[in-house]
Each structure stands twice: as C-alpha cells, then as structure tokens.
Design goal:
Helix content of chain A: 40-55%
Order of helices and strands of chain B: HEHHEEHHEHEHHEHHEEHH
Distance between the termini of chain A: 23 Å
Oligomer: heterodimer
Shape of chain B: elongated
Number of helices of chain A: 7
Number of strands of chain A: 5
Distance between the termini of chain B: 79 Å
CATH topology of the largest domain in chain B: Outer membrane efflux proteins (OEP)
Strand content of chain A: 15-25%
CATH architecture of chain A: Roll
Structural class of chain A: alpha+beta
Number of helices of chain B: 12
Radius of gyration of chain B: 44 Å
Shape of chain A: globular
Strand order of the largest sheet of chain B: 2-5-7-8
Strand content of chain B: 5-15%
Structural class of chain B: alpha+beta
Number of domains of chain B: 2
Largest interface: A-B, 35 and 31 residues
C-alpha cells in the first residue's frame, strides 16, 4: 500500500507547458503517468525499458532535485562544496528515479486522484490532492499535497506531503541525524550502497 | 480351483463396483460443491434483510398469532348480528284423526267429508286411528305419510350497555398489539442481519489489510536473511527476529479475523439462506444526522414497536375491564320466532292450546335480560381492573427500560463515532510515518526496525478503524431498533 503511495506521490506532477496554473499542470501530467503505469510491460522486454525511460523522463522534469536536496540538507548544504552538492543531488536523483521505476512492476493501479485546490503565492504554490486507492474491503484515502515553485514557465515540485508527513522534513531529519552522528560522507556512502543494491535488472 | 476363480471374480467385481461407487460419489460431491458455489448470490444489506424477514421463524410465529387475534376481533364485531337457529325436521307420521264425540255420529251422516273433518276438528277431544280405535304404540308405528317441522328463532341485540363495543375494542387493540409484535420480530431479524453483514465486511477488510502487511514483511525477511549471510551484514539478528515475530503476530490476527468472518457468514446464512453472500460494496461508514438523545427517547415512545404493543395492550386490558363492567348490566334484544308444521295424515284439534302437527305461526318481542350472578361478575370486574393496573405498571417499567437502552445505544454510537474519527486520523498519521520510513529505506538511510514500529502502529490503527466503522454501522441499526425511527444513513 505505501509502495503504491510513493508511486502516486508523483502521479499528479508533470511538465505541462502552456498550462497556466500548477493544478492544471498536475492534472495534465496525471494522465501521462497514468498511461505509463497502466501499460504493465512484461519484465525485460523493450516495452519495459521504454516505459522506464519515459517514466524517468517525466519524474526528472517534475522534481526539483536541487531544491529538494538543498532544503533537506538544510544547514549542512552550506558546509559542503559545490562539487559535493552536485554529487549529492545526482545521487538523490538516481535513487528517486530508481524507486519510481521499480514501481512499474509493483504498483497495483486502481486509484483515483481528486484535486482539492491550489494556493499560489508569487512563485510558490501548493496543490492539495486526495488519492483514493482501491483495496480489497475498504479503499484508503491519502492526502498528498505538493509544494511547487515556478522556474521560468514551469512549476516544479520540491516537496511532497503525504498524510501530513513532509518528504523534505523527513529527509532533513534523517540526513541531519546521520551527518551529526556519523558524517556527510557516511550519508553519501549509504545512499550509493542503496543504488548498488537496488540496481534494477 | 473353481472356488478360487469365483472368489477372485467376486473380489474383482466388488472392487470395480466400489471404485465405480466412489468415483460417482466423488463426482457427485464435487458437482454439488461446484453447484453450491455457483448458486451463491451476492446481496445488498436491504436485500438480505428482506430475505431474513421472509425466513424468520419468529416473524412467522408473530404473524400466526396476529391471525388468531384478527379472528377474535371478527368474532367480537359479529356479535352485533342476530343470533338464533333454524331447525327443520322430517318424521314418519301415522294416520290420526279426531274422534267423533259420543252421540254426534248421527249429525255427521250425509255431510260431505270436508264438513265432517271440520266438525271433528272443532270438537276434537280424543284422537283415533282410521279404524276408530284409540291410538297406541302399534298404531303410531303405522306410517302413513312424512311429517315436517320448521322452527326459526332469532335474537337481535339492540343495546348491551357496552358489552359488544368493549369486546370488539379489546380485540381490536389486541390486533394492533399483534401487528406491533410482528414488526418487533422483523426488526429483531434486521439487527441480526445487520450485525452479520457488517461483521463480514469488517473482517474481510481487516483480513485484506493484514494480508497486505504480511506481503510487505515477507520480502524484508528474505532480504535480511540474505544480508546476514554476507561478510559485513547491514542488519543484525534482532532485525530478523523482530520481523519474524511481527509476522507471527500478524498470523495470529489473521486466524482471529478468519474465525470472525466465518462466524458472521454462518450467522448470515442461518438467517438468510445457505446460498447468500454479501455484496462487493466497501466497508463504508454510514452517515448519520446529529440528533439529540431526547429526540430518540421521545421517538421511541411513539414509534418503537414494543411501545405500541404496550400501549395497545393497556388499551385492551382497559377495554376488557369495560366489558366486565357492562356484564353487570342488562341486555335489550329483539327476539323473533317462526314455526311451521305439516303432517297430512294427522288431524289437529282446532283448540289453540293443543299441540299441533300442522301449524304456521310466529312471534316478535322485545327482550330484557338481566344477569343475577352479580357477586361473581363484580369479582371478575375487580380482576380485570387489577390486570389493567398491573399491565400499566409493567408498561411504565418497560418504558424506563427503553429509555435506558436508548441511552446505552446512543452512548455506544457516540463513542464509536469518536473512535472512528480518532482511528481514521491515527491510521493516516501512522501511514504517513510508515511512508516516511519507507522513503528513508528507499534512500538507504532508514532502519527496518522503524518500519516494523510504524507498520505495527499503522495496521493496528487500521484494524481499529475498521472495527470502529463496523461499530458505528451496527450501532446505527441498534439505535433505529431501540428508537423505532429511521436513523439517517442507516440502510
């Protein structure tokens, strides 16, 4: 269930050039990701590879990794070099990509996204959604709120709040704990090890 | 040798017969099982309630009792119709004629037979057979014709000082009470079906949730077991044992839930039929319009079937007392009678005071009947009044009981609704926590023990949430049962 939620956290987001508001962009992107996820390609086939690449492309166009990493590292962002920052953002991006791509095989895709509203203040916006996931016996409803910022003409997501838990705040807490108790290098090591482990076949 | 062959053939035949029978039996059993499964029909709650009502023995019994009471009421109402009887008889008639008075024979000589007969009947002081002999038993036995007799008597009540009215009213109230008892029996079935329905839904939703939890744990256990075999494992044995214990605990929960589900299904099938199954709708929380406790308490007095039974019962007892009071008073009635007799071989005397075999007559009179056993009747009146008083006291006691029951159900419902809100919020928060831990694990910076803790909280609250939804839905049914009014949102 929560695996599916993680997949769906990006469900409402996509590049949507030409659409004015952040919510409209989310709605547009919804159908795009939905189509990719519902293809159910057979593992190891060219169709699966194509779907993975397409999904990665969508995710990359949506998530503002730089901002997510900056906010999650918080005070530690300023203590690392620009090279380390680039390295960290690339690692984070790689992990998130892999996790989303993995869901292609795992996700049970019987859901409905309900857009509750948007709140735009200058170049920052919040879009509130509810994802109703059909499960046996009783559907579950999760609130997923997106925080976006406008970069050029595009709204990009820098935080996702699932059932009142902010992804940025969660990462910030965990990153801080590891950096404080161990080191920044230890954090990066753990993340890289995860990439090696979860390298999809 | 021949015996051996015969024995072998016998055994072979017996074995093939056995195999044939077993195969047919197994085939039949499988066919029945498949047929039974195929015939299972899914129903909504209202449909199941209708099925349950139609099958319920207690409803049938209450309806049979109602039919008896309706018959009593018809009997009471028809007391206004006249009562009486018609008797028609046929009998052999001897030839009997009036004897000519002594010394009058000469008077009759030369007269036509009609005049002779008229003279004899006008002067009939004795009867004889055609030979002029006195009538004896032997003479009576000589049948000459068939005699007929018709008697009709009717009594039409005019005024009974309330006897019939009170009897009819008592019977009418008994019928109304019987109708309320039928409704009581139906509503008892409703609540049993409702409990079973939501019990099945809750058990299945919970099972699905727990099974999804088990599905989450299995890959983790495999992953940690593999990791522990590595030279530098990331996890330790505690992590593995923690997961395994969590899995065992989930297995226990599954076992418990499966028992609950099977019990609820068995109950539903006893109530509604072996072929029934609940529909595919989700375990949704029924909506309820907020009404005060006082509303339901007042509503129960008017709408709860048992309250109607008690009200009508009290009225019936009071009507019976009125009937007993009227029993002390007289009745006025119009009484009519009619008689016709015909025996062609019998000559009757024209004397009005004589019993006649040939006759036509009737009468009509106003009758007044006053019972004189007033002592006994007064005692019965006292008894009836005491019964009415006792029933009134029982009614008061029962009404207090209803109020107490409504208070309890209302409180249960209020608590269940609060619990639903709390567990819904709790399980959402726990899911957020679970998702956050999963996010960390996906980045390689999380701990599986956190996942267990968050998962346990999530599944625990989720199951409690389902239980709370079931409790709300069942308590809505109970409140409707206790108050007698539709509680908004209830099926």
């Amino acid at each position: 269930m929560n695996r599916l939620l993680i997949t769906l956290m990006l469900l409402g987001t996509s590049q949507a050039a030409g659409l004015s508001g952040p919510m409209m962009q989310l709605k547009e992107s919804n159908s795009r990701i939905d189509r990719i996820l519902k293809r159910h390609p057979v593992a190891g086939t060219p169709e699966e590879r194509s779907a993975k690449e397409e999904l990665k492309s969508v995710v990359n166009q949506l998530l503002d990794y730089q901002e997510l990493a900056h906010r999650a590292l918080a005070q530690h962002w300023d203590t690392i070099t620009p090279t380390q920052r680039g390295e960290f953002v690339a690692t984070l991006k790689q992990l998130i990509e892999k996790n989303y791509v993995r869901q292609l095989r795992n996700a049970t895709l019987d859901y409905q996204v309900i857009y509750k509203g948007e709140n735009v203040a200058d170049s920052v916006a919040t879009v509130d959604t509810v994802v109703k996931v059909k499960t046996k016996g009783k559907s579950t409803e999760s609130s997923i709120d997106y925080k976006l910022r406008k970069i050029d003409d595009r709204w990009m997501v820098f935080d996702i709040i699932t059932d009142e838990v902010s992804m940025v705040r969660n990462y910030r807490n965990q990153f801080n704990k590891i950096i404080t108790n161990e080191s920044y290098d230890a954090l990066l090591r753990k993340m890289r090890k995860k990439i090696e482990e979860s390298d999809p076949k | 040798m021949a015996e051996r062959v015969a024995s072998f053939l016998h055994r072979a035949t017996a074995w093939s017969t056995y195999r044939f029978v077993v195969k047919r039996f197994v085939g039949l059993t499988l066919w029945l099982a498949v047929t039974a499964r195929a015939e299972t029909v899914k129903h909504t709650l209202p449909e199941l309630i209708q099925l349950g009502r139609a099958r319920a023995r207690q409803v049938n019994l209450a309806q049979a009792e109602l039919h008896v009471r309706e018959a009593h009421r018809r009997t009471a109402l028809l007391q206004w119709l006249p009562s009486g009887e018609l008797t028609y008889g046929l009998s052999p008639a001897p030839r009997v004629r009036c004897a000519v008075p002594p010394g009058e024979q000469a008077t009759l000589d030369g007269l036509p037979e009609e005049q002779k007969q008229a003279f004899r009947q006008n002067n009939c002081i004795n009867t004889v057979d055609p030979g002029g002999n006195n009538i004896n038993l032997i003479g009576l036995g000589s049948i000459a014709s068939v005699g007929m007799r018709l008697n009709v008597s009717l009594t039409q009540p005019i005024y009974t000082f309330g006897k019939i009215e009170n009897a009819a009213a008592a019977a009418g109230h008994a019928v109304a009470a019987g109708q309320a008892q039928v409704e009581t029996a139906r509503q008892d079935v409703d609540i049993l079906v409702t409990r079973a329905f939501w019990g099945i839904k809750a058990a299945r939703a919970s099972l699905a949730a727990v099974e999804s939890g088990r599905d989450e744990l299995h890959p983790w256990i495999a992953k940690i077991e593999k990791d522990l075999d590595e030279p530098k494992p990331q996890f330790n044995l505690n992590d593995l044992e923690r997961l395994k214990v969590a899995l065992a605990q989930l297995d226990l929960v599954v076992s418990d839930l499966q028992r609950n589900e099977q019990t609820a299904i068995a109950g539903l099938r006893i109530l509604c039929g072996d072929e029934v199954e609940v529909d595919e709708s989700e375990l949704d929380l029924l909506e309820l319009v907020d009404r005060s406790l006082g509303y339901y308490e007042e509503a129960a007095l008017l709408h709860r079937p048992e309250a109607r039974t008690l009200d009508e019962g009290l009225k019936a007892y009071r009507s019976i007392a009125g009937w007993r009071r009227a029993d002390l008073l007289p009745d006025l009635a119009l009484v009519g009678s009619f008689a016709w007799g015909y025996a062609p071989t019998i000559e009757d005397s024209n004397n009005a005071y004589m019993t006649r075999a040939n006759l036509l007559g009737g009468g009509l009179y106003l009758a007044f009947r006053q019972p004189l056993d007033l002592g006994q009747r007064l005692a019965r009146l006292g008894h009836a009044r005491a019964d009415a008083e006792m029933f009134a006291a029982q009614r008061e006691l029962a009404l207090v009981g209803f109020r107490w029951e409504i208070d309890q159900v209302y409180n249960d419902l209020t608590e269940a609704r609060k619990r639903t809100e709390a567990t819904e919020r709790g399980q959402k928060l726990a899911r957020g926590w679970f998702t956050a831990v999963q996010q960390n694990i996906d980045l390689g910076i999380g701990e599986p023990r956190d996942l267990i803790e968050a998962g346990r909280a999530y599944f625990d609250l989720r199951l409690r949430y389902y239980q709370a939804i079931m409790d709300v839905n069942v308590n809505i049914g109970r409140l409707r049962r206790a108050s007698g009014v539709e509680v908004a949102g209830s099926p």
